[in-house]
Amino acid sequence: MATIGFIGLGNMGAPMAGNLVKAGHRVLGFDLSPACRDAASALGVEIMPSGAAAVSEADAVVTMLPAGKHVLAVLEDLLTAAKPGTLFIDSSTIDIASCRLAHGQAAKAGMLMLDAPVSGGVGGAAAGTLTFMVGGSEAAFAKGQALIQPMAGRIVHCGDASAGQAAKICNNMILGISMIAVSEAFVLGEKLGLSPQALFDVASTSSGQCWSLTSYCPVPGPVPKSPANNDYKPGFAASLMLKDLRLSQSAAAEVGALTALGKHAEEIYSAFEGAGHGDTDFSGIINAIRHGND
Ligand code: NAD
């Protein structure tokens, strides 16, 4: 069993670290927030006084932080404190440019590194069923796969450095666009006098079928577990969807990719957040489409 340093014990990090503890690993954790430290401690994580203290004895380090700037801000200290050859696994969702910088810094310090963002949300983090999209060398992946396993339902090695982040950003751009498409169809159907259940029954087995419709339907009724049945409580908050759409647009601008619908989806979620709905589940966008952003 390994000793794992875990930095960032928030909504996702604490339950992920808890699953590493359950698998028999020794997990040394750090978070800036006392409440997050307490929650992780209750799951068996040994809380350390700093990030550097959490990684100095570790065989591997997992970071689960809000954004690229947070990862780059802590990495230098962590790389200095860790033993040579330590495997760094960054599971935060971050921009491609910061991800590549992080890989470069790790390599310069003689460490192995994987970018390994996840999908599956807080529920998947607690259940240990997250999908991990992994970028990095074969050697780093061979070392990291077994460590990731207790937190994962599925692990996909997507390619070299930053391929995991690229997969995450592209997947979530599809998700943001498809949720808007499904919502527009339900609102148009309503105005045409079509019942939501009838539209669901047709589209869920026809060419309009997609995850936003069949697993996460934005109207109450057809998919009983979707957030629409729980007053649009997240789930996956609109502010996180907006974050990922912004990442897709900065990546698209860097490489000159035409993502017209991705850009429009970003604008739609930006207006939704601006109207105070950032904490609403992202499927709540249907209410803005139906009534405007008030
Ligand atoms: P969160 O805000 O709950 O947790 C982030 C934690 O990092 C916070 O507890 C914060 O105190 C801590 N932190 C920030 N700077 C730090 C530092 N310098 N040292 C130590 N700790 C520090 O966020 P989350 O929901 O757990 O998400 C984490 C990452 O996972 C994000 O990149 C997010 O986009 C991604 N993600 C989230 C979800 C989700 O459903 N919440 C799903 C998939 C991916």
What does this structure look like?
The strands form two sheets. The protein has a six-stranded parallel beta sheet with strand order 3-2-1-4-5-6, with helices on both faces. Strands 7-8-9 form a three-stranded mixed beta sheet. α11 runs antiparallel to α12. It has 13 helices and nine strands. It has two domains: 158 residues, NAD(P)-binding Rossmann-like Domain (Rossmann fold); 126 residues, N-(1-d-carboxylethyl)-l-norvaline Dehydrogenase, domain 2, CATH 1.10.1040.10. The protein has 294 residues and is of the alpha/beta class. α2 links the parallel β2 and β3. The structure holds nicotinamide-adenine-dinucleotide. The site of nicotinamide-adenine-dinucleotide has 28 residues, from α4, β7, α6 and α11. Nicotinamide-adenine-dinucleotide binds next to α4, β7, α6 and α11.
Tell me the β content: 5-15%
The termini sit apart by: 53 Å
Contiguous runs where pLDDT drops below 50 for at least 5 residues: none
What percent of the residues sit in helical stretches (DSSP H or I)? 40-55%
Rg result: 20 Å
Q: Could you give me the name of the CATH homologous superfamily of the largest domain?
A: NAD(P)-binding Rossmann-like Domain
Number of strands: 9
Order of helices and strands: EHEHEHEHEHEEHEHEHHHHHH
CATH architecture of the largest domain: 3-Layer(aba) Sandwich
Number of domains: 2
Structural class label: alpha/beta
Number of helices: 13
